[in-house]
Amino acid sequence: MKTEKNKILVVDDDPGHRTMLKTLMGGWGYEIYLADDGSTGVDMVMDGDIHFDMVLMDMKMLKMSGMEALEKIVAYNPALPVIIMTAFSSIETAVEALKKGAYDYLTKPLDFDKLKLTIAHVIETLYLKHENTTLKEQLSQGFLREKIIGNSPAMTALLETVEMAAASDAGILITGPSGTGKELIAGAVHANSPRRKMPFVKINCAAITESLLESELFGHEKGSFTGADRKRKGRFLQAHGGSILLDEIGEMSLAMQAKLLRVLQEKEVTPVGSEQNINVDVRVIASTNRDLLKMSQDGGFREDLYFRLNVITLEMPPLNERSEDIPVLSLHFMKQFAQKNQRDIKGFTPEAMDAMIRYAWPGNVRELMNSVERAVVLARGDYLSLDDFPFIASQTYQKGETGTHGDVTTSGAGNFSGNGSEKGSSTVDIPLADVERDAVLGTLESAGGNRSEAARRLGITRKTLLKKLKLYGKA
Question: What are the Sigma-54 factor interaction domain coordinates in residue numbering (predicted)?
Fold first, then answer.
């Protein structure tokens, strides 16, 4: 068991009762912290400055009741055990507290022996959970793939690099098109690193406005800006000792890049509204679908930050460069969504799978996943056929000449339409840009002109779709 004392937060608005509990439980070898009302107790838990092992809380308090505080604490951290104590020992109140997530329920006046046994049981349960997790980690052998599917040469080479890079503490930059699985690779780096037992925190830099990004990354003090009603730890402090993924870092402004660079150099953060510098130990993993080197040369990205982040580069291959993985990925998604939607889908027809392997997949794995989900939900038979992927037939084989692909002769949609018609030809020798343009415009047409739906089917953001439409003169 861990050598430091277990930390217990006592929340009670009766000062005499608080003092008594601190003396009593302190004598049992626990480190006791006190809060004089439910609101203060909730704040102490959410601030995260102290990692409590359990909370002992009175039910009846003036400013915020124990029931209300219980709901807030459970919503914030469901794994933190909360024991409710009250003089009102009605069965209804006990049941309500337990339903809302209380670990146990004690009545006043407290039976000290029962209190001691209850606390010991909580601590023992936490210890056993920790031991079980540790044992599982010790029993697991070799590289943890973290839900990464695929054995193509491209993925095998990538994962070999990931395994070597994970063992170090060097900064990592993951590059590649949208939808290729950059976040999964980042997770694999953390899961196989010496920091794997510590937090892995993710933040999408493109999803948060510039005015809020600094607060999200570095935290803020209470009252530091409008709406800052309580002190908050930033993502870097949440990831202390572990790893942080800065997704879409190419979207970060130059001003924020300068602040991030300082954090990486000094290994300390300054929360918004504070003058205190807080030391932080975090491994930074960044990802982007943009060319940061070119951006740095053009003045859109700080060159010093680029080289600070880019110690090791992991380049994600697009799905059309790892087509060997399409069958196993497709089957994985089919089983996942069939179970989720309670559909009895047995597999794919040969022509559907053949067409999927040949399709360019401009939205990469995300597009494949979304397409299989749609097919599973709308399928009318036991097997997913080409009719369940109409955009593939209409977009992949549209040109006028018959061509060959390996040992298979393709006569356009005739091989994949399911009705024997022969119109169009293969995509062999067709520029990839043309294939992508046909895929985007065809998906938009099949979605009835709904750009949000078309973006979802392609596995790209609506913003990216609008950029492509503008490029095609279709905005």
Answer: 148-377
